[in-house]
């Protein structure tokens, strides 16, 4: 199980510790559900990307988890931010990330978003035929063009982003037209971008996409006399959610891709692989009961703080943080507290027999969990803490119930 947990995780005197702090103590002090982020893991992943692609501009896929504190840590490691909304741009700017390290994406950017991106000095990634004119009118002066390379990644269909029917990007013909239009309007088109998909567990499709990107650039030079200064090959590298999963390391996945690129500025956009393993969600066990031969363990969160099992059929593992060295006594189904039969976090997991008050720890929940949280059933969003060297810092306050009524009239 430790291989799924953050780098600082240990089992000490029967308790899970993260960042030198017992997880049960974190649960007692900050309440549950609680997402615990390990600073050591975040910094190590950032450095792994820098080592795998020396000189590359690495920008964090903010949608994985928008957090000012985490963005500041990544900025200290030399990373920028990949954003796609005004909200994500606000997080990046609050974290002090300069405009020359911000990429503004989106398949349906508003005029307001284009204007704010321009004011921030961000590079706008053009994604539609009408965007060059709208971007120029908004004051955008630097842009990439997003290419759809026609590659179908081996991942869940909802997170494939480079196939021919994707809502993202432009076909080669449309991308050439967008470059020409943007140049005519005085926009500095400095690069081309693609993104194959998310939770990638193999490099083959990304290699095909890189080859098609290079071929597109050769065509752009031949037809337009234009050569990019930068090539952005996106992100998408997956993480392990279960011990059976096989996912390449950063040092295995990135160098073969970079090796096929010409001598230009390389841009990478990792998200999940930076923060996914760094996060562990702690829940408090409540009801334990049998139903039709199934042993249910209900926790105080569920699909409102982690909708991935419902959206993608995602699988997770877990351990009892306060009884981490005890042998398994049975197989249990971990259910959330929401009024949905489908609110199941883990369909089947071997554990010591849980008891009310135990702390259940679910690894690999640092990306696309709290980031995708809702307030379904009127359940407020949980808190998040950052741990390092025996210290814990609150980086996201627990949402109070009163906040749910704040906008009611």
Q: How would you portray this structure in words?
A:
By secondary structure, this protein is of the alpha/beta class. The protein folds into 2 domains: 2-31 and 278-404, Lyase, Ornithine Decarboxylase, Chain A, domain 1, CATH 2.40.37.10; 39-273, Alpha-Beta Barrel (TIM Barrel), CATH 3.20.20. The protein is 28% helix and 24% strand. It is built from 12 helices and 20 strands. The protein has helices at residues 23-30, 39-52, 68-76, 86-94, 111-120, 131-138, 172-184, 204-224, 250-259, 272-275, 308-312, 401-404; strands spanning 10-12, 15-18, 21-22, 34-38, 57-61, 80-83, 102-104, 123-126, 142-146, 188-193, 230-232, 265-268, 279-291, 294-299, 319-320, 330-335, 344-351, 359-362, 383-388, 391-396. The strands form 3 sheets. Strands 4, 13, 14, 15, 16, 17, 18, 19 and 20 form a 9-stranded mixed beta sheet that branches. An 8-stranded parallel barrel has the order 5-6-7-8-9-10-11-12, surrounded by 6 helices. A 3-stranded antiparallel beta sheet has the order 1-2-3. α3 links the parallel β5 and β6 (80-83). The protein is elongated. It starts with 9 loop residues before the first strand and ends in a 5-residue tail after the last helix. Residues 153-160 have low confidence and may be disordered.
């Amino acid at each position: 199980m430790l291989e799924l947990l953050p780098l600082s995780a240990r089992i000490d005197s029967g308790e899970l510790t993260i960042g030198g702090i017992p997880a049960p103590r974190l649960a007692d002090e900050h309440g549950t559900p609680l997402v615990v982020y390990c600073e050591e893991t975040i910094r190590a992943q950032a450095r792994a990307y820098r080592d795998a692609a020396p000189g590359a501009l690495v920008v964090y896929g903010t949608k994985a988890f928008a957090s000012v504190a985490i963005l500041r840590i990544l900025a200290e490691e030399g990373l920028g931010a990949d954003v796609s909304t005004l909200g994500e741009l606000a997080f990046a700017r609050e974290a002090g990330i300069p405009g020359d390290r911000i990429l503004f994406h989106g398949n349906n950017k508003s005029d307001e978003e284009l204007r704010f991106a321009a004011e921030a000095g961000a590079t706008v990634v053009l994604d539609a035929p009408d965007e060059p004119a709208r971007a120029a009118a908004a004051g955008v002066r630097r842009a990439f063009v997003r290419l759809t390379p026609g590659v179908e990644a081996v991942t869940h269909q909802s997170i494939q982003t480079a196939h021919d029917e994707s809502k993202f990007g432009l076909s080669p013909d449309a991308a050439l037209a967008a470059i020409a239009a943007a140049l005519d309007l005085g926009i500095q088109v400095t690069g081309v971008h693609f993104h194959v998909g998310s939770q990638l567990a193999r490099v083959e499709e990304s290699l095909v996409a890189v080859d098609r990107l290079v071929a597109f650039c050769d065509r752009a030079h031949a037809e337009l006399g234009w050569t990019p200064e930068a090539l952005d090959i996106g992100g998408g590298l997956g993480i392990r959610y279960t011990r059976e999963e096989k996912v390449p390391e950063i040092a295995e996945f990135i160098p073969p891709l970079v090796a096929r690129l010409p001598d230009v500025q390389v841009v990478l956009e990792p998200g999940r692989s930076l923060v996914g393993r760094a996060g562990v969600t702690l829940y408090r066990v409540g009801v334990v009961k049998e139903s039709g031969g199934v042993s249910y363990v209900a926790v105080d969160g569920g699909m409102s703080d982690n909708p991935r099992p419902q959206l993608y059929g995602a699988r997770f593992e877990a351990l009892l943080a306060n009884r981490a060295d005890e042998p398994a006594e049975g197989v249990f189904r971990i259910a959330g507290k929401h009024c949905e039969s489908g609110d199941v976090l883990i369909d089947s997991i071997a554990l010591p027999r849980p008891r009310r008050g135990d702390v259940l720890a679910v690894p690999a929940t640092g990306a696309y969990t709290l980031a995708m949280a809702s307030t379904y059933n009127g359940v407020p969003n949980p808190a998040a803490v950052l741990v390092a060297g025996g210290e814990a810092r609150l980086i996201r306050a627990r949402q109070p119930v009163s906040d749910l009524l704040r906008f009611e009239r």
